[in-house]
Amino acid sequence: MADIKLYGYSTSPFVRKVAACLYYKHLPFEHIPVNPVDPDRMIGFTGGRQVPVLAIGDEWKLDSTPIAIWLDERYPERPLLPSCPEMRAKIMKIDDWLNESFLPSYFRSALDAKKDLAFKYRAWRLAALVSAHTPLPEKIRHMWPDILQMAPFIVEMVSKIDREESLQDMQMRLGMEMVRHLNRGPFLGGSDTPTLVDLALFPQLIFPYMAGLTDKIPTDAVPQLKIWTRAVAKHLPRNPILVPDDFIVAYLD
Ligand SMILES: N[C@@H](CCC(=O)N[C@@H](CS)C(=O)NCC(=O)O)C(=O)O
Fold first, then answer.
1. Is the CB of 99 under 6 A from ligand 1?
2. Ligand 1, closest atom to CA 107?
3. Which of 52, 121, 123, 253 could form a disulfide with 15, with the two C-beta atoms 3.0–4.6 Å apart?
4. Strand order of the sheet with strand 4-8?
5. Which ligand 1 atom is nearest residue 13's CA?
6. pTM across the whole model
């Protein structure tokens, strides 16, 4: 089998999405950490700064969803997308919601945050997680709260969000949409097996808890979502978030 390499940093939801797809498909891969301050060193060959990048042998691809489609083409076992056209269209629609609304909402909460102590601690923790793989200069780590609020890709991603709606209303709406997408389950879109969208959403929900940014999984307050989280977890390793084990603060019960 060709060597599979996943380039990226664990703090990116799109990188974690691709990692979860690889774990779900039982495909061994090497995680190549990319320093977000100096991405060229590792992914200069792409001509850009965007992660995730997945390389299979001599070929490589950008963009989490096209990467997942490519993985299914190359390795059809344990498909990420259903073969039934109707179900596939449904999953792709949920994936659009994840890519365009749900995941960017996390970047909005960083951008709109007051620079209070709680925000600074979370930002410094994120810097420590990046630094665990690709050491950042101390000065850069200290500046991480400012860097998060200035990063051009974050500013650009958030500029596409309608900020007329308050952050709190947006988070509430997204939570309700998540429950609607779960349908009757057991997996998103009413699928019987996990798909790309479960593997994109799950690491995002558990990352802050496992990596020491929050002390709860907020969706655990909703019984259907708590059941769904544990059902997805059964298909993945105990630590599927690309953070070194000794940085994990809590595991799913
Ligand atoms: N549509 C892309 C989005 C990837 C993305 O936004 N990656 C961010 C990290 S979360 C990135 O590489 N930002 C650095 C940059 O673009 O300069 C995907 O699904 O993979």
1. yes
2. 10
3. 52
4. 30-33, 4-8, 53-56, 59-62
5. 10
6. 0.97
